[in-house]
Amino acid sequence: MTTIFLAIDTATPACSVALSYGKELLQYYWVAPQQHSEKVLPRIKALMAEAALSLKQIDGLVFGRGPGSFTGVRLAASIIQGLAFGLDKPVIAISSLQALAQGTYRKAGFKRVMATLDARRDEIYWAIYQEQQGLMQAQSLEQVQKPAELSFEGNVTVVGNGLTSYRSLLEKHSHLALPQYPPLFPEARDMLTLAYPLWEKGEVITAQQAIPIYIRDQII
């Protein structure tokens, strides 16, 4: 039986919605800060229409639970909660940093990365991921720090818009490889890749449990 997943991510200046059904995958991806709330639901509707599917046919819902923009991660969680309650469907929450790492592996083949997102206030969200059987798995905790204060072991390639925002500070770490054109933001399609193994193991949550992960506790 074909499993149908709908995924959304609004945690960064980029926004994406993706749908997987069987071997088919559709995604809308755009970079339009401050416009996520206006575009997500119409894009979901368009995605379902393109696939000739109804929301009732979805088996599971996937969302980027952060870290990222406080407004963005709240938006994704609220939309997914509304859909999960209305459709009575389970939810899978995926780290925005892990999705960024997975997209990096898909696009560039990097197998060990430090996924970074600009956290503002001269800080970055970051975590290290290593490829294992095609999936980027966490090798560190998700953290928020100033780029000059990072503490980690081993060589690693930095990706994400944390690099583009703070390249000069990250250059001070000799164990970091800094590609000139790194993938910048997570995408919903990579959250789907990470969601399938969790679905198969029954690692799903309810609508009530679909909450954002901020890391930093002060809203800015």
Could you please describe the fold and organization of this structure?
This protein is 32% helix and 29% strand. It is of the alpha/beta class and 220 residues long. It has 2 domains: 4-95 and 186-209, ATPase, nucleotide binding domain (Nucleotidyltransferase, domain 5, 2-Layer Sandwich); 96-177, Nucleotidyltransferase, domain 5 (2-Layer Sandwich), CATH 3.30.420. The strands form 2 sheets. Strands 6, 7, 8, 9, 10 and 11 form a 6-stranded mixed sheet that branches. Strands 3-2-1-4-5 form a 5-stranded mixed sheet, sandwiched between helices. A hairpin with a 2-residue loop joins strand 2 (14-21) and strand 3. Helix 3 (96-108) packs across helix 5. The longest helix is centred in the middle third of the chain and has 18 residues, at 70-87. The termini are far apart. The model has no long low-confidence stretch (mean pLDDT 93).
Summarize, please.
By secondary structure, the protein is of the alpha/beta class. The chain has five helices and eleven strands; from the N terminus they run βββαβαβαβββββαβα.
Annotate the secondary structure layout.
Layout (H helix, E strand, L loop, with lengths): L3 E6 L4 E8 L2 E8 L4 H16 L8 E5 L5 H18 L3 E4 L1 H13 L3 E9 L2 E10 L2 E4 L4 E3 L10 E4 L1 H10 L5 E2 L10 H13 L20
Parallel strand pairs: 1-4, 4-5, 6-10, 10-11
Antiparallel strand pairs: 1-2, 2-3, 6-7, 7-8, 7-9
Helix pairs in contact: 3-5
